[in-house]
Amino acid sequence: MRLFGTAGIRGMLWKKVAPELALKVGMAIGTYKTGRAVVARDGRTSSVMLKSALISGLLASGMEVLDADLIPTPALAWATREHGDAGVMITASHNPPTDNGIKVFNGDGTEFYVEQERELEEIIFSGNFRKAEWNEIKSLRSLDVITDYIGAVLDFVNHETSLKVLYDGANGVGSLVAPYLLREMGATVFSINAHVDGHFPGRKPEPRYENIAYLGKLVRELGVDLAIAQDGDADRIAVFDENGNYIDEDTVIALFAKLYVEEHGGGTVVTSINTGSRIDEVVEKAGGKVVRVPLGQPHDGIKRYKAIFAGEPWKLVHPKFGPWIDSFVTMGLLLKIIDEEGPLSKIVAENIPTYYIRKANVACPDELKEKVVENSAKKLKEKLGEEIGEVLTISGYRFNLRDRSWVLVRPSGTEPKIRVVVEGPTEKRRDELFEMAYTIVKEEVEKLKRTSRA
């Protein structure tokens, strides 16, 4: 069983993630790397406990440790590049408060590549850890990050604004950065759910539409220029325009992809397997190329294809600033774009074509996910038949159809779920395909659950 999923190690406390594992991960990192590690955590109730165990492992294997404590994941990646040879974030990102996890970074701020995760797992499972002698154990020191990180983002964005912004921090660690960053830019900020609380009392930490739909009404009532929502560790960002309309995740990716390709006069954009055709359309029109990679691997894609920009739903990478997902750079640049070309609704209407996407999850035990996806893909292939133009198998199964519709069925890398994503050029076409795919997956889950109990 692999420890690493699509975004580090993540799972329910005690069932998958526990202090014993954090200790081993720390010792494995110190066996795999040398030098200085920067460590941080999100606001989950179990994060201090896990961070303490992780630091013990790092020290035991001979690494020096800089403890940045409570900061967002993008700030940890930045601090790792500035101060460390490795970085570790204790977080479960957008998962429920019952969960936690561990995300590992290289000294340049990139998340560990797939091959590095495999090598780290081999060390963990083998137990062949480096053990520092008593006189080789290095120091543990505190590291203040937030002020310098905000300054770095401000320097990169290089823009002053007078926009009004509604910010929803999800009671996550983004609340320690976003309101201050936006105010430093000159924005008027209205904040909600902006105190850190690992119970996430304000809303569910994942910023998908159904969890943040109330922001649309608040936008209209407050008369702001946009609303921004983050997740628990603040790598994700969701956006509403000045009319209170939710801006689809693919639209946000397409908007930035278009701008970067136009700025570079071409280039490659990396995006994930679960993103839509509007990205391809605007990038190709601007003279660029789109390459899709497995979910959770934008950094791998940037390295392999020398991409000028990368994005997956809610998570954008700006390589000119750093090779990590950074929602704070995204929000800063978004304000700049609105000031230069806005309002946001106009920018979207004039630049991004409309496609209709629908997403849903089907609960599925982890041990059945692979078989459910395989069986579902076979049935979908039979039903779709000659409509299929291309099949991508880099993360689950994606069927690209001849009318530019597509159907994706893939196992979640972080939760016991199957993801079903469908897009079509019309709502009717989307809904027809979705009902077919969702029904097939649900039936396969129930069938295999019955078989496994027999």
UniProtKB/TrEMBL annotation:
<dbReference type="InterPro" id="IPR036900">
    <property type="entry name" value="A-D-PHexomutase_C_sf"/>
</dbReference>
<dbReference type="InterPro" id="IPR005844">
    <property type="entry name" value="A-D-PHexomutase_a/b/a-I"/>
</dbReference>
<feature type="domain" description="Alpha-D-phosphohexomutase alpha/beta/alpha">
    <location>
        <begin position="2"/>
        <end position="130"/>
    </location>
</feature>
<dbReference type="InterPro" id="IPR005843">
    <property type="entry name" value="A-D-PHexomutase_C"/>
</dbReference>
<feature type="domain" description="Alpha-D-phosphohexomutase C-terminal">
    <location>
        <begin position="361"/>
        <end position="436"/>
    </location>
</feature>
<dbReference type="Pfam" id="PF02878">
    <property type="entry name" value="PGM_PMM_I"/>
</dbReference>
<feature type="domain" description="Alpha-D-phosphohexomutase alpha/beta/alpha">
    <location>
        <begin position="148"/>
        <end position="244"/>
    </location>
</feature>
<dbReference type="GO" id="GO:0000287">
    <property type="term" value="F:magnesium ion binding"/>
</dbReference>
<keyword id="KW-0460">Magnesium</keyword>
<comment type="similarity">
    <text>Belongs to the phosphohexose mutase family.</text>
</comment>
<dbReference type="InterPro" id="IPR005845">
    <property type="entry name" value="A-D-PHexomutase_a/b/a-II"/>
</dbReference>
<dbReference type="GO" id="GO:0005975">
    <property type="term" value="P:carbohydrate metabolic process"/>
</dbReference>
<dbReference type="InterPro" id="IPR024086">
    <property type="entry name" value="GlmM_arc-type"/>
</dbReference>
<dbReference type="GO" id="GO:0008966">
    <property type="term" value="F:phosphoglucosamine mutase activity"/>
</dbReference>
<dbReference type="Pfam" id="PF00408">
    <property type="entry name" value="PGM_PMM_IV"/>
</dbReference>
<protein>
    <submittedName>
        <fullName>Phosphoglucosamine mutase</fullName>
    </submittedName>
</protein>
<keyword id="KW-0479">Metal-binding</keyword>
<dbReference type="InterPro" id="IPR016066">
    <property type="entry name" value="A-D-PHexomutase_CS"/>
</dbReference>
<dbReference type="Pfam" id="PF02880">
    <property type="entry name" value="PGM_PMM_III"/>
</dbReference>
<dbReference type="InterPro" id="IPR016055">
    <property type="entry name" value="A-D-PHexomutase_a/b/a-I/II/III"/>
</dbReference>
<keyword id="KW-0597">Phosphoprotein</keyword>
<dbReference type="InterPro" id="IPR005846">
    <property type="entry name" value="A-D-PHexomutase_a/b/a-III"/>
</dbReference>
<dbReference type="Pfam" id="PF02879">
    <property type="entry name" value="PGM_PMM_II"/>
</dbReference>
<feature type="domain" description="Alpha-D-phosphohexomutase alpha/beta/alpha">
    <location>
        <begin position="249"/>
        <end position="355"/>
    </location>
</feature>
<dbReference type="InterPro" id="IPR005841">
    <property type="entry name" value="Alpha-D-phosphohexomutase_SF"/>
</dbReference>
<keyword id="KW-0413">Isomerase</keyword>
